[in-house]
């Protein structure tokens, strides 16, 4: 292969030197095995699209609905979607720069800064348009970029300026398409006037504002432009011919001498044909990219992101509870709205990332976190409501029947009423386990929207009959599940999986949601005229609530004084030291040796008081920092870890968590499909928000929610979450806790890992904590639940 590659590159160099203009077919198909990109995004965005009667249509105030999303990591454009929100078409677009002292590649050989292009006078972002500067670590060049989408077209905009700082440089644009959501079977062509790729009926064209000096297409690792440049010359291949594979498209910019610069605009158009993609790109140029950005932002009379931000009536009051002047609050509002599909209104995804993407095989389609989980969905919908956004949570609520199991669910031969574990935004089934909290939370969302007066009595009654009653019935009766691989009998409150999707049994967090869901279902049932259902639901909620301590609180545990809530138990006996299941390459520990924060959900929803003796007893074990790292959950971050200010508390999901990088080498989770015992789940920032909610509940119950106590919560938990945000004001799923080796990207303490950033749930938890502080009331607390169970 090495000899073959050398011959290819030698031939390519000769073609360039002789100026060969005829089409040359790139050899080496299909190229090296494809992966996705680094998952710790520092930017992500899309156009703001206004609803028309709760749906997305082209005749609304924002015109043609744009269905393009982008992400930024390490200062470069990464996964870019067109069509449905999970349908990636690009892996990444970088610049390589040939300098007098060697070749440098963005991301690998550069540092970066990132900021928002459009901000208010206080520096709070008003749209997810970004400016990024990458600087060569050797000081030879700098690259300034602006990244945003065309809100009226299927197009992505990059405005690029390259500056030669030390010696001469020649920049090259490196575009790696992953058409149709895979890195295989792509075909491409390259010319001075544009770069083109397609697979099936999905096409993209990159148009430059001025012709490239030269252009090339090739198969990754064999005949691509970067491989050629590393060997000394850009290959002259202009087409992949009939062969498909993992390809790269390259376009050369002019050589710059020291002190000179060059600016180029690039528009990437998408469509169902080459002509359509070219038309989208050309139309964006014709509109003028300055004007496109103003439309994206919603400046002046234009309708765009400024208008959405202005519509959030609670945002100023919510942001006033922050310690950073509201910057993260505004960024969080932009981010959660950016994580909604533009075909299926209200379809809220978990993250615009593929966890550990640069180690994940891209030969088959993958949604990663670009999918619907009803649990994450609930958190985000409630955050929209906390901001005063009435339309989005209503659209989300009305979307939910698409992901509820019923007689029309493909392949379902069992009982319905429960909600699918994970689906594509169009409802396509992906994961099929039963998680009882995910069946309760749609009921809870409906109740909140109804009691706020946003969901009318008539609409509530209709949705009660259509969706909420079947869900409540399942939470009472359970049933036979028979869909795809899943053939099981579910008898609540036993759940097939709890909120971490790994264990079956009796879970405090799942039971908290089930009790809350059934209690509010009873109230809606009465209002809808279903007295029998109301009585049934409340009786089940009372029964489940009365069993929580007997089935989930150990009195003879191995930790501390032996009294605490366990994460989960499989047999309703938390004292028999029975093992729970193995997961993520870890051991199968005894139930009493695994603690998580799920018990705090009992307080959040109003099932238990904040000063309940069982809750208070568990706090000490949850917070024990002297425990061995295998079983330890809490980690504190402070000045010694490079984080300014007071100590920030953080928590892992639970002890013995293996959902993370390997401690020995920092490599990604489940590399090659192998679960390794060295894998370690890290600290999740949204637990800092969950604890802040608990502390607020405790202060309120004690009658001490004065300004001093509220300020203490802000300084510890609000500011703590703000410290976990990255340079782009995005909040991660996990941050490095200092145990073992960081990844190859060398995360610092408290910095996001390669799991997933942004995580919608983390942004939602932050916004909900701010709203709770503004209201002096826990946002997710349900009055009927609190009134019944807290005496």
Question: Would you mind describing this structure in some detail?
Answer:
The structure is a single chain. The model is unreliable at 1-21 (pLDDT under 50). The longest helix has 21 residues, at 457-477. With 791 residues, the chain is α+β, with helices and mostly antiparallel strands. A hairpin with a 4-residue loop joins strand 7 and strand 8 (141-149). The protein has 20 helices and 25 strands. Helix content is 31%, strand content 18%. Strands 1, 2, 3, 4, 5, 10, 14 and 15 form an eight-stranded antiparallel beta sheet that branches.
Briefly characterize the structure.
The chain is of the alpha+beta class. The chain is built from 20 helices and 25 strands. The strands form six sheets. Strands 1, 2, 3, 4, 5, 10, 14 and 15 form an eight-stranded antiparallel beta sheet that branches. Strands 6-7-8-9-16-13-12-11 form an eight-stranded antiparallel beta sheet.
